[in-house]
Amino acid sequence: MTTAERELDQNTNFDWNRIQESGKEVEPLYGPGYTGLINLGNSCYMASTMQVVFSTRSFCARYYLNQDLRKAFETAPADPTVDLNMQLTKLAHGLLSGRYSIPAIQKDDIANDATSISKAKQEGIPPRMFKAVIAASHPEFSTMRQQDALEFFLHFLEQVERVNAGNPALDPSQSFKFGIEERISCPSGKVAYNRRVDYILSLNIPLEQATNKEQLEAFAKLKEEKTSEGKEVSSDEIVRPRVPLVACLANYSAPEEVHDFYSTALKAKTTAIKTAGLISFPDYLVLHMRKFVMEAGWVPKKLDVYIDVPNIIDISHMRSKGLQPGEELLPDAVAEDEGSQRLMANEDIVCQLVSMGFNQLHCQKAAINTSNVGVEEAMNWLLSHMDDPDIDAPISQGSKNDDDIFVDASKVDTLLSFGFQEEIARKALKASGGDIEKATDWIFSHPTASTSADMDSMSTSPPGVDAALADGGGRYRLIGIVSHIGTSTLCGHYVAHIYKEGRWVIFNDDKVGVSVDPPKDMGYLYFFERLDD
Known about the structure:
By secondary structure, this protein is of the alpha+beta class. The protein contains 17 helices and 16 strands.
């Protein structure tokens, strides 16, 4: 075992013990709201997420307080086993009623033995039917493999929104939805505003903002000395960076350079400045910590870092101000042909490809289908589409539009694991000929490429005008944490900690108890509830 492998093993063991509170005297809890979920085989990603979701007032009211179980059965479709609203009602009553939150006494235990009852583990409930329904539209969740809790959470909310589309007033997923506005400023002095909606705020972790730099430097020297002596660093000696959550939030709003930005005012590529803010503050704010990053050679790595998260945060300063007096919007791109919105091939790209011996018509199609990103991207597309049956058809008839271009689902999943939205990931892969590395570069060089149809991409409206989005003050209280143990989101284990009735409670599959030391600095997903002033 190499030094790096030994250190990784030490970190994993430490995370496992700290997050699961191993070795702690955790007092079991029973009753309403304290029901565990049986692990169906690597289903902890689902169990931890659903425990936090049903601790929110919106989901509790929709599927438990305001929904009678018998009435739900009566009003369900012909087959309630495949109705998501029915299965959520069933799951809510199972988790929140307390009916199934009782100690699991062994057969040989004495029924009146109070000691055995107080220390017994509850049976919990197996959410098999719910898993079958929620996984029906996502084949990965129907497997027995570990999944990303973030991906499941987003998929779950999308499905809840879909089944409640006929009555948005009852849709509890809206309590998580908020608007994001990005402002792009180019050297021309003109600006562009890009608006979209999301359920989570994904934050990079600026390691350079660590508050324990002196300790990190001392640890680096100690590690170097011990390595030179052939000794191992003990788990007690390991020092991890500590980054405040406020630094992560500030990093999200900080100005960022966007290279190769095409300015419609200058009619050329330039370097623009991008800033981002929120146009609404949801009832529940979910923060996703980007602990999984790509190292050189596109090797995924999990950041071994602590995030100092306070119980109360204030993000009022992150509210977007919208178009300001005196600002002028960048002009819309005008199509070459007034009667057509079809993209025209870049002549420079076409000429370079033709000089390599390719057919000119094929080169034009390659440039169009890669959005004129560059010669290399167009060549990759050309080489992979030489045998297309319509490759020789005229462009007016045979050029592919976005819907016709095949995108490898596994490559889309890879980009999703980086934290990109699915629609943007697909668009980037189409533009880059299916190359993941180039698709990632394309996304960063096209910050206005959001494909969300929920909000206008170019807007002069003031923020907060969408009445469908919940909004309020910017002060939030931490109510839930989903932590991950392991080297990848697709392996390891997930555990939830939830603030209930004035105390932190650990939900580790079917084990529920009073948390002794909640790992607030080790979360993967943080759930905050807006405080009403």
